[in-house]
């Protein structure tokens, strides 16, 4: 598959995910009468009902092509540990969102405010010593203007429901940060490739947070017990 076809496929997948995610706000607004926690519980059960069969099918396909590998005790422990932490943060985020919608935040407004987690993630990264480019601050300024127009507008104040949804966006950003931190505990391997003239081989990756393409060493995940040399 060519790079252009891969990019098109990835874009269509992301667009489909965005459509599904966006439509969920309408469902949350319509079905919010059952209560925030009940709504989120039903939502998670529906997600699990779809995810469990997918997991079974994926494992079956791996067994068929010989790529299946049983998880070790340490891997299961890490999965449970990080899963609990990520799940707790996700619980806070989704319920803050539903409480905000139940409190009067319209679906379109809730979707916009929640999407501000995209800005909060690199902002949290600043406190972790990560640098951010000027594009981040331009985006923050534009988001603040949009937030004012949506939330303040004619009423001249920010509603409590808006604050709850904004807190939800911060929680979602924290969720992504926690996932990023947990991935660091997974063994990885970086390849320092040299040619016959001792020149280092690097790859170019565009990093949105920095607003430019970065030179990086080729890298990938290393399974536990796997020899780094052939990997």
Explain the overall architecture.
This protein is mainly alpha-helical. The chain is built from 7 helices and 6 strands. The strands form 3 sheets. Strands 1-6 form a two-stranded antiparallel ribbon. A two-stranded antiparallel sheet has the order 2-3. Strand 2 and strand 3 form a beta hairpin. Helix 1 packs across helix 4, helix 4 runs parallel beside helix 7 (160-183) and helix 5 (117-127) crosses helix 7 (160-183). It is globular, with a radius of gyration of 21 Å. The protein starts with a helix and ends in a 10-residue tail after the last strand.
Nutshell version of this structure?
By secondary structure, this protein is mainly α.
Could you tell me the number of beta strands? Answer: 6
Q: What structural class do you assign from the helix and strand content?
A: mainly alpha
The strand line-up of the biggest sheet is: 1-6
Summed over residues and divided by their number, the pLDDT gives a mean of 77
| Number of distinct helices | 7
Helix content: 55-70%
Task: Note poorly predicted spans.
Answer: 186-191
Radius of gyration: 21 Å
How much of the residues is beta strand, in percent? 5-15%
Q: How would you spell out the order of helices and strands?
A: HHHHHHHEEEEEE
Profile the largest sheet. Answer: 2 strands, antiparallel
Query: Termini distance?
Result: 24 Å
